[in-house]
Amino acid sequence: MSEAPVGVFDSGVGGLSVLREIRARLPQESLLYVADSGHVPYGEKSPEFIRERSQAIAAFLLSQGAKALVLACNTATAAAVADLRERYPKVPIVGMEPAVKPAAAATRSGVVGVLATTGTLKSAKFAALLDRFAHDVRVITQPCPGLVEQVEAGELDSARTRELLRGWVEPLLAEGCDTLILGCTHYPFIKPLLAELVPASVRLVDTGAAVACQLQALLDRHGLRAVGTAQATRYWSSADPQAMARVLPKLLSELADVQPLCV
């Protein structure tokens, strides 16, 4: 059982930023990845729809032998992680949440900006994070409609992506923001571009590494850490598999076959 793979899924290719962190921390783990790109972005969908998709994808990954699940999506976590943990009480399940706590600890100006999808910003989970960890800081939220689609298309440093980011970031900087939370797993892929648009003193915070750390802790707790050699990662997409295959070299610097997801 310990050599079984870990299943990772997201509304699209953004969760590959989390998969990258899992590989770095747990190189012996074999991984399965589902991009639900046929329904991207989740941030504009209803919680009920996201729960249904998360249930279907989780069931698929478990049918492929997954020993643990990672919801590499803030919006899916907010909508579905409690339901999945109730359905599969014996399966280690790791979710995502925007990095409000570390950002609040890191800010010097007392102003934190959040770049995220509409769904994440409207979620009760996000509101609870602010209530718990942001008492002494000012948090400015910024929805980023269209940015997920830019990453899905591999447009990581195009003029259009630059224009979108500048329009969202400049007002935050004008308000004194010195810490930016990347509240969607797609956004770490535009970190290099974002670093060009903000002063070097502005800290960019995401939670991919923390998720990998939590996955390690859960696997250890359940005696499920792999000790052999990892198998090649297997990929599925609910949109055009070839479109995902074309963007993989930009996101992970690798070539791989992508299978169609029919759930």
What does this molecule look like?
Helices cover 45% and strands 16% of the residues. By secondary structure, the chain is an alpha/beta fold. It has two domains: 6-96 and 208-260, Rossmann fold, CATH 3.40.50; 100-205, 3-Layer(aba) Sandwich (Rossmann fold). The strands form two sheets. It has a six-stranded parallel sheet with strand order 4-3-1-2-9-10, with helices on both faces. A four-stranded parallel sheet has the order 6-5-7-8, with helices on both faces. Helix 1 (16-25) links the parallel strand 1 (6-10) and strand 2. Helix 1 crosses helix 10 (208-221) and helix 2 (47-63) packs across helix 3. The protein starts with 5 loop residues before the first strand and ends with a strand. The relative contact order is 0.20.
